[in-house]
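Final report, Chapter 2: Outcomes

The project's central promise was a pipeline that accepts a single protein chain and returns its three-dimensional structure in a standardized token representation, suitable for archiving and comparison. That pipeline is now operational. To close this chapter, we reproduce one record exactly as it appears in the project archive, with the input sequence first and the structure output second.
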Amino acid sequence: MPLKKGRGKKVISENIKREMRAGKSRKQAVAIAMRMAEKRKRRKT
């Protein structure tokens, strides 16, 4: 399932949960979710 787009805490935490359910470790899930949030931030500037 694709990750949600956005930078808010709620979206990031939901993305972390999705990645963990998909079998990723907690550290890896956090890294992926934070990277997605960062991408969203960079594209708007």
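Archive annotation: Residues 1 and 22 are 9 Å apart (CA to CA).
This record, like all others produced under the grant, will remain available to the consortium after the project formally closes.
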